[in-house]
Here is the input.
Amino acid sequence: MLSVSICIPTRNEEGNIKRLNQGIYDALIPYTPESKYEIVVVDDSTDKTATIARAFGARVIKGKGMGLGQAIIDGIAASQNEVVLVMDGDGSHDPQAIPSLLKPILDQGADIVIGSRYVKGGDYSNWAFNRKVKSLVGVKLMQLVTGVRDSNSGFFAFRRSIVDSSMLNGKTWKIMLEVLFKGKWISKVEVPITFGDRQTGESKRSTRQVFKDAINVIRLLIWKFPKRYVSFAVIGGIGAISYFAVFWAITEYGHIWYGASYFIATMVAMTQNYIMNHFITFREPTSHNIGKLKLKGFGVITLCLALVKYVMEYVRKTKPRNINHLKGFGAYFAGSWVGELVEYLVMIFLTEVFGIFYLLSDFIGSGFSSVIKYTIARKKVWNDDKRTASSPDYEWHAFYKGLPWQKRWKRIIASIVKEFAEYPDGEAGRVLDVGCGASPQGLMINHSDYLGLDPREGKINFMKSKDLRKCWFIHGDLGTVTFTEDGFFDTVLFIEVIEHLSEMDEARFNLHQMHRLLKTGGKLVVATPNFEGFMGKWMDRLYGIFQRNAYQKEHQLKFGLESLRELCEDCGFEYVKSEIPSGADMVCLFRKVD
Ligand SMILES: Nc1nc2c(ncn2[C@@H]2O[C@H](COP(=O)(O)OP(=O)(O)OP(=O)(O)O)[C@@H](O)[C@H]2O)c(=O)[nH]1
Ligand SMILES: [Mg+2]
Here is the structure.
């Protein structure tokens, strides 16, 4: 099981640290037999905080006197365990919430967990009214840019492997935002916490610090802004200049009819853009450690110097991608025309419907067009996102970072599966997940033990690398893995797998094996597209068109509720209930009868 380091920055918290340490030990009791953990206190106090913390078994590190942010960074760097949890030392973060912050990492494989006042179940009721209002306004604004409901949280946990602490900026207090922006994570979870007031002692927060934190958010946004898009847009701008120059020159001096020279000029500009984007924008990294845009201030000279340094480093550590130029230029050309069409339609719409001045409408339209062109170039020409259904982390990525509708859909299915799988005591017991892939949904179910089985080795290795508590993953299927004990499992999951089998006999074989492995009365949860419903058929088709890299072409056995029910009943199961959200997918619960 993963080991845990709890990092606590302190400055003059002698009145709080004893109770806090005691609370942490109590909260960690369930973990102590299995896991290694440590408490690391980074102390900048002039009182007895360090002595008390040491007496309670914490490792105390002398702070550099450079503020809270730097103290947390030093704590992260000095701690040794695989999971890092950061919390305040003033008693405002309740140690009893620690297990709920660790659970998504240790049991469900999350990369970063944020203790949040603003998700369902979260609370900050102790706070004075004006502090609540101030906090809420700031937090809601921040949510627009970070997508996190509680960006101010200082109570968070993450896998050490997602971030290199030397990249974090110690001048801000909001280290959670630093980790969020700079870390390489896929799965992020917010869990509710109750945020209290500091118990004793004085606040160290100042207006100056709040201002510094706000500036840092702007820096983080610049840091995160897709620099390749800037390059693409600048090249587009240069292309526009070439276009007008060629258009004018060949019409005036080449004596070509302007209706024809328009096309020649467009082709010249597109070709120029294609070449520049190939050699500048969409280079691929040759080293893991690509240069970062390091901003040390906001002066024009500093900015220019940083930019030049960044570009030099970028060129040195990247090379142009190896692509088929015939296909590439075709796709680029088509994408550019799609962009032009969108620009035209937006311009007409804004001018005709809203009466906006036509040049302004066109300017707005060109913004839309450039994002569309960029996306097509990135995905279809220079093949940036190479993740396909066979990629080891495909399902994991789709669940946490997929397209918004995809994420929402997966969550709906996952919540029904969870509800069906758990027994009235809120647990599914021993769970067998057949064809688990790299999907997190089986892990959302409360279980005593979980066994994932999948014939694709890459996915199994990806899941194993998460090192989850009470979870095992085996490479294989019910035909190749031998289970000696019948009736061992309480719950079997067969989620979005049956449609991939090639023959009915194979489906029957799997269901018979599941029947054997389940205890009498045990649950079988099956989910598969509802191919008999209108929505199911169409969703499947659309899925095939828009997500070519995904699974649609593998769909072979196509069930409706009746045919699925018949098959499972044939194999010794009793139908209990089903849900067919929006008609597209069905989730069915069966029970084993003897
Ligand atoms: N090591 C170290 N810890 C600090 C420093 N400044 C603040 N802290 C600690 O950081 C945590 C948060 O500081 P607080 O003063 O509680 O700030 P706050 O939570 O925004 O404000 P209040 O709860 O209203 O006091 C506490 O555990 C402080 O002891 C510092 O300069 N060095
Ligand atoms: Mg505090």
Q: What stands out?
A: The longest strand covers residues 518-529. The pocket of guanosine-5'-triphosphate (ligand 1) is lined by residues 9-11, 13, 42-44, 63, 67-68, 71, 88-90, 92, 198, 203-205 (CB under 6 Å).
